[in-house]
Amino acid sequence: MRAQSLFMVILLMLAPGCINLEGNDVGDGMAEEQISEPEIVEGCTDSNATNYDQNATQDDGTCEYEEEEPEPIFGCTDSDAENYDSNATDDDGTCKYLETIPCNGLVILCHRTYDDVTFPETHNAFSTHEDNIYYPASNHRTGFQAQWNAGIRAFMLDTHYLTTADQSVNQVRFCHGDSDRGFSPCTYGQVDPIAWLSKLESEMQSEERDVVTLLIENHVDADHLKEIFDDVGLSEIMYTHTMNQDWPTLIDLINMDKRLVVFWEQSTDSNHPYFHDFLTYSWTTNYADDDTSSMDCSPLRGDSNQPVFHMNNWLKNQAGLSDPTRASEANDVDFMIERALECVDDHGKRPTFIAVDWWEEGDVVEAAERVNLLELDSD
C-alpha cells in the first residue's frame, strides 16, 4: 500500500501543471517572458541634414539642408533702364537710361564714347580780328563768344610769355607764332588767357550738358598753366584719362562733372596728368594743305592707334599763311563730310574733331552734326 502511494506521488510530480515541492506553480513550463516592442522616436535620420537627430529611429520628413549660394549674375537690375536684364541678380552699375536732354546738341550723343563723337573745332581760336589780331596773324574774324554761340566746342590755343625777359605767370598770353626768333610771338597780337578762359568757364556753367575740348600748343611752365586754370575755376571739371582705357561716354563725363578735356603739345607730366600729351593720346592729319585735292586722312603726327584724332581742314597760301580767300572751299559742308567719310573708310571711325580756319565761312558746326548723324557699323 505504501508502495502504491509513493508511486502516485511520483506520477503527480511528473504530470503537467503540478505544484513543485517548494509550493510554486509550475504550469505549462516556466512563465513566459514579456518581449516589448522598441519605442519609435521620430525625427530627421539623415546625417547630412542640419537638423540630424541621432536618437531618431524613424524619419519624419523634417530634414533641413544648407542651401548653396547661387553664383551672382551681374547686370542692370533696374526695370526702368534701357538695358534692364531680367536674369541679373546683382546690379553692376551699367544701367543706361533714355536721355531726353541733348548732350552737345544731340540726344543720340549722350551714350556715345567721347572718341566716337565729332566736335567742330577752331584752329587758333583766340587769333581773331575781334581780339585785335589782324591778318596775317589772324585765323578768324570773330572771337570766342560768337564761336561758342554757333556751337563750336573744341578750341586750339597757343600759350607764350608776353616777353622773353619775364617768364612769370602773369605774363602768360594766348598768342601765335615762332618763339625761336629771339622775340615773343605775342608781338603779332595777344589775348589775356584769364579773360578768355573765364568766358569759357561761364558758358560751361550755363551749358551743363556740353563737353568741351582744348588743344594747347604750350610754351609756358606747366605750373603756370595749371594756376591759370585754377584761377578761372576750370581745374575742377578737367577730366583725367587713363592711357589705353576706353573713353567715357558724354553722359558719363557730364554726370561726373568732368566736362573739360585738355590736350597739350608737350610730353606727359605726371604732376599734371589732366594735361594729356597730344601726340600720345591722339593723332592728327596733315594741316595747312596747298589745296583741297591734297587733303586726305593719313596720319601726320601722334599715335595712329589711338581712337581720338583731329581732321585738320584749312588751306595755306603761297606765303605759308592761312588762306581766307579759299576758306569757303575748304569749309564747304559737303566737302568736309566727304573727308570725314574717307576717314571712316581708312580708320573705321568718324574723326573726333574737324578743325578749321575762318570758321565763319561754310558751316563746320553743321558738317560735324551731319557726321554725328551718320549710321556707322561701330555705332
Polypeptide structure, described:
With 379 residues, the protein is an alpha/beta fold. It has 2 domains: 75-101, no CATH class; 107-373, Phosphatidylinositol (PI) phosphodiesterase (TIM Barrel), CATH 3.20.20.190. Helix content is 22%, strand content 14%. The chain is built from 9 helices and 14 strands. It has helices at 2-14, 144-150, 193-206, 222-232, 250-256, 278-281, 327-330, 333-347, 364-373, and strands spanning 42-43, 58-59, 74-75, 90-91, 119-122, 154-161, 172-174, 212-218, 260-264, 275-277, 283-285, 299-302, 309-312, 353-356. Strands 5, 6, 7, 8, 9, 10, 11, 12, 13 and 14 form a 10-stranded mixed β-sheet that branches. Helix 3 (193-206) crosses helix 4 and helix 8 crosses helix 9. It starts with a helix and ends in a 6-residue tail after the last helix.
The top-level CATH class of the largest domain is: Alpha Beta
Major sheet details: 10 strands, mixed
Specify the CATH architecture of the largest domain: Alpha-Beta Barrel
* SSE string, helices as H and strands as E: HEEEEEHEEHEHHEEHEEEHHEH
Mean pLDDT: 90
Percent of residues in helices comes to 10-25%
Number of strands: 14
End-to-end distance: 135 Å
Structural class: alpha/beta
- The poorly predicted ranges are 21-27
Radius of gyration, Cα only, in angstroms? Answer: 45 Å
Q: Which term fits the overall shape?
A: elongated
Could you tell me the CATH topology label of the largest domain.
TIM Barrel
At the fourth level of CATH, the homologous superfamily of the largest domain is Phosphatidylinositol (PI) phosphodiesterase
Number of helices: 9
What percentage of amino acids are in beta strands? 5-15%
- Total tally of structural domains: 2
